[in-house]
Design a protein that fits this description.
The complex is a heterodimer of chains A (165) and B (173).
Chain A: H1 27-42, E1 48-50, E2 60-64, E3 75-96, E4 99-117, E5 123-129, H2 130-143, E6 152-153, H3 155-159
Chain B: E1 3-12, H1 17-27, E2 31-40, E3 43-52, H2 57-70, E4 72-79, E5 91-98, H3 103-113, E6 117-127, E7 132-141, H4 146-155, E8 162-167, E9 170-172
Antiparallel strand pairs in B: 1-3, 1-4, 2-3, 5-7, 5-8, 6-7
Helix pairs in contact in B: 1-2
The chains are: A alpha+beta (165), B alpha+beta (173).
Chain lengths: 165, 173
């Protein structure tokens, strides 16, 4: 698996590609996951990374929300993840390793159920909420060539109550 | 770019102001930096970082011609172009209630006393003519926690208003 040892940044066109599913759960995959995690942990307090962020166009995500308050699953490797159900919506501030020096408000589902495989090819299912669910949705967007910039909403329009005429 | 300027503009809102202004800047070979453009109370307002290789004199002349033609007030002042260093807000404050004089002065004096650095402030007068509702939203950096700031705001004369202070968590992934 080809990958860079550092995060690629927008407007690198590789961030706009739809990634292919992983089919071989072998030592090369696990070595790549370890490299990718090293890149994530070398960044400034990053809580997730997706394979296209290191130039690898496969459906691989690592998340780790354990440094934040609230329930979470700790370090997770999500291969070929799918959202099977979601509920609620919540606004939160996001930034991206691939879009440095910018943050924005994004609406995400509050609760998720996802299915995926781990790096050994074993099927997994997770229920998650709030911050951890936000991280997973942000990373899964990368697998479909989407950036948080595509989902940023105006601060002003969110903040003020609608006036009844 | 040789130097950066802060362009400020105010004029009665109508379609095309941004297009006219930025066309002049484009033809003058300028680069645009960060901007805030908003309609405020029927006026259109622009705060815009403009970079140019010139000394600004010719640019100012072109802009004043445009201002005269479109009945706009435009100023061009030298400014530092400090990009790629956005500080991240860690606290947001929302204050709302029946409109009265002094809300912003009281709130921001209290926040300054807390060491709060305002990065973004937006306010509006909502409600109705008979019952105006003032809504103030502030984001910034503060060494105190949200609960302590909220208590200080309430104690410092904002008891008649709805005050809520929350930590802002930014997810980087």
């Amino acid at each position: 698996m080809f990958a860079t040892r550092e995060v690629i940044t927008w407007p690198d066109e590789r961030l706009r590609r739809i990634c292919a599913p992983v089919t071989a759960f072998d030592d090369a995959l696990r070595a790549f996951v370890a490299d990718m995690e090293g890149v994530m942990r070398s960044g400034p307090s990053a809580v997730g990374i997706a394979a296209p962020q290191v130039g690898c166009l496969y459906r691989i995500v690592i998340v780790d929300a354990s440094a934040r308050k609230g329930p979470n699953h700790g370090r997770l490797v999500l291969i070929n993840p799918e959202i099977v159900s979601w509920e609620g919506s919540v606004m939160g501030r996001e930034g991206c390793l691939s879009v440095p020096d910018m943050t924005g408000n994004v609406v995400r589902a509050q609760d998720l159920v996802i299915e995926c495989f781990d790096e050994y090819g074993r099927p997994q299912s997770y229920e998650m909420s709030n911050f951890e669910a936000r991280v997973v949705q942000h990373e899964m967007d990368h697998l479909d060539g989407l950036l948080f910039l595509d989902r940023v909403v105006s601060r002003r329009s969110d903040l003020f109550p609608r006036v009844k005429k | 770019m040789e130097s950066w300027y802060m362009l400020t503009l105010v004029g009665r809102d109508r379609p095309g102001i941004v297009a006219e202004v930025t066309q002049v800047l484009y033809e003058a070979g300028c680069l645009l930096g960060e901007a805030s453009m908003l309609r405020l109370g029927g006026n259109f307002t622009i705060m815009l970082m403009v970079g140019t290789d010139g000394d600004g004199t010719a640019l100012n002349r072109s802009l004043q011609q445009l201002a005269d033609a479109l009945d706009l007030r435009i100023h061009l002042d030298p400014a530092e172009g400090a990009f790629h260093e956005h500080p991240e807000a860690n606290i947001c404050v929302t204050i709302s209630g029946a409109d009265r004089a002094g809300i912003v002065a009281q709130a921001t004096r209290c926040l300054a006393g807390c060491g709060f650095n305002i990065l973004n402030l937006e306010s509006t007068v909502a409600g109705s003519v008979e019952r105006p509702l003032y809504v103030l939203h502030i984001e910034g950096q503060c060494p105190l926690d949200a609960e302590a700031i909220e208590q200080r705001l309430i104690q410092d004369g904002l008891r008649d208003l709805d005050v809520s202070v929350h930590p802002m968590e930014t997810m980087i992934a």
